[in-house]
Design goal:
- The chain is α/β, with parallel strands linked by helices and about 350 residues long.
- About 45% of the residues lie in helices and about 10% in strands.
- It contains 14 helices and nine strands.
- Helix 3 crosses helix 8 and helix 7 runs antiparallel to helix 8.
- The longest helix is centred in the middle third of the chain and has 16 residues.
- The two termini are about 25 Å apart.
């Protein structure tokens, strides 16, 4: 189970998209703001913003957004995504009829260390629609929702939509190809209840969203056919659902992945096995979580590079600006494909 509240950390506000960018694009982007949840990490790096990346964001997002002080307007539903990938899907389905805020949105921090602040509680208390992951990943949301029980509020839990057990090993459900189509459909259903006049619009956006996932799903199927049971190593199970769908064979022991994920020490035996995977030519790709790093994972990254094992950087929070959910997943799949030709994509 993911530990979300490690002690001894200090709050950091993630970067926010500037108003000038939004105006220059001629539309308001879906939120990538963190309404000041407290997150901390020792390796914060700002992602470069290019014109091309900005255009990808503009093309992928269809919704109005607000900063932390957003309030509902006529015909607009106030919504919150516990993670920015869920907020992004809400935005795509709701279009101009939603105001969306993401609680966790900084791809340069460790989301396992997130601690909800009073500001986050305020945002959640306003929400008419909430989407969260479940599987113990964002349990802070449950506490806030219980403390601010709003009549008629819709709460969508991805775990429940796809039938994942509470004690499931891997909580990173957004890499599962089944998750977001189910989330999009549930979002449309709840938005239609809250704003019935726009039900046809929401339904149409679900169809468009599902169609937009086809390139990713096709890439997964093509990879599975071309590279059956390709052996890979990972630091933790961030992209394991996608790897499994693509037919990859994950060689890293689950206890090792769980230890890194939960901030505990892997066993010496598992550390030795992981080292052998990377240095003894036993895997073709090393998938490295960019958001949960320490001296041990850095050592394995160095081992992979020295052994010329291609590296794929994976993320728990959608990298922004530059991506929507679909282009993010496609970028990770493309990076995996390129890795088998010897090219590393350490960072997206």
């Amino acid at each position: 189970m993911v530990n979300l509240t490690r002690a001894g950390r200090h709050p950091v506000r993630p970067e926010q998209i500037g108003l000038e960018l939004r105006l220059s694009l001629g539309l308001v982007l879906g939120t990538v703001n963190d309404p000041s949840g407290t997150v901390s990490h020792s390796h914060r790096r700002a992602l470069p913003l290019s014109i091309a990346a900005a255009l990808v964001v503009a093309a992928g997002l269809l919704a109005s957004t607000s900063a932390a002080s957003a309030s509902s307007g006529p015909g607009k539903v106030v919504a919150v995504g516990a993670e920015n990938e869920y907020a992004n899907v809400i935005a795509q389905i709701g279009g101009p009829f939603v105001i969306v805020t993401a609680v966790m949105s900084n791809p340069n921090t460790d989301p396992h260390e997130f601690e909800a602040s009073a500001k986050v509680a305020e945002e959640v208390s306003k929400a008419q629609l909430i989407v969260q992951n479940g599987v113990g990943y964002d349990t802070f949301m449950n506490k806030i929702e219980s403390a601010s029980n709003r009549s008629g509020r819709a709460v969508i839990v991805a775990q429940q939509l796809i039938g994942v057990a509470n004690d499931a090993f891997n909580p990173h459900l957004w890499y599962n190809p089944r998750t977001m189509p189910a989330v999009a459909s549930a979002v449309a259903t709840d938005l239609s209840r809250l704003e019935p006049a726009h039900a046809a619009y929401f339904k149409g956006n679900v169809k468009s969203f599902d169609n937009s996932l086809r390139p990713w799903l096709n890439a997964i199927a093509s990879f599975k056919k071309a590279h059956p049971k390709v052996p890979v190593a990972v630091t933790e199970p961030v992209a394991d659902y996608m790897l499994e769908a693509a037919g990859a064979e994950i060689k890293t022991p689950q206890p090792f992945q769980a230890a890194i994920m939960n901030g505990t020490d892997p066993s010496p035996q598992d550390i030795s096995l992981e080292e052998q995977l990377l240095t003894k030519d036993q895997v073709k790709v090393f998938l490295y979580n960019q958001q949960v790093t320490d001296s041990l994972t850095a050592t394995f990254l160095s081992d992979a590079m020295k052994a010329r094992v291609p590296v794929v950087g994976v993320y728990e929070t959608m990298p922004t600006p530059g991506y929507d959910y679909q282009t993010w997943m496609m970028a990770e799949m493309n990076a995996l494909r390129l890795a088998l030709s010897g090219m590393s994509t350490v960072k997206l």
